[in-house]
Amino acid sequence: MYKNILNNILMDDKPSEGIYNLMESGEMDKIIPELNKLKGFEQHTPYHDKDVLEHTMAVVDSIKPNLNLRMAALLHDISKPDCFTMDEKGRGHFYGHHIRSAEESEAILKRLDYDFDFTMDVKILIRYHYIKEIVSNVKEKGIKKFIDSVGEGRLEDMLELVRADMAGKPNPENIEVVNRLKIMCREYQQKKDAK
């Protein structure tokens, strides 16, 4: 029952409205109570102008209406509060949040009785959504590793999640990072196909 409610909300034109309603009514406590820890959790970084929940809702609302993408968007930062540290300059860090969020998303989706393939698809999208390390390493080896990890059949969805995640941040240069990653992936694939 709860799975169907969540699926319907995620496929709405503006999923954040339904998610906020479930949270305010307390019904989300029966579905994904883990979302509550995101509310009001300030990130203390220049890369974000929203708390973790507000950023998550912006990503969910801006991603294509595919259930796997919307679910990955909903859970992509689910473990950020658990990974939070602050440096001596008062700047927040979330080291390894993508790895922990992927693991936590798997547990959540299993609990909600999603099938194995859907769960693994969402988990992999979340695990590799954090592209800072990929784009900073512009060598072909880094792109090959990224594509191999994500899987060629999942690459378009991965790039869509990265785009939506970057669009949910205040820096307009973020979209350029996504475009650069797309070009790098395309060039690698063309080179590979030409062999």
Structure, described:
It is a single chain. This protein is mainly α. It has a single domain (2-194), classed as Hypothetical protein af1432 (Orthogonal Bundle), CATH 1.10.3210. 61% of the residues lie in helices and 2% in strands. It has helices at 2-10, 15-25, 52-62, 67-75, 97-111, 116-127, 132-136, 140-150, 155-167, 173-194; strands at 85-86, 92-93. The chain is globular, with a radius of gyration of 17 Å. The N and C termini lie far apart (50 Å). The mean pLDDT is 86.
Quick recap of the structure?
The chain has 195 residues and is mainly alpha-helical.
CATH structural architecture: Orthogonal Bundle
Mean pLDDT: 86
Helices, by number, come to 10
Q: What count of domains describes the coordinates?
A: 1
Strand-residue proportion: under 5%
| CATH topology descriptor | Hypothetical protein af1432
Oligomer state of the chains in this structure: single chain
Indicate the percent of residues in helices: 55-70%
Strands, total number? 2
Rg calc: 17 Å
- Identify the CATH class: Mainly Alpha
Strand order of the largest sheet: 1-2
Distance between the termini: 50 Å
The assigned structural class equals: mainly alpha
Order of helices and strands: HHHHEEHHHHHH
Biggest beta sheet summary: 2 strands, antiparallel
What is the general shape? globular
**Uncertain parts:** none
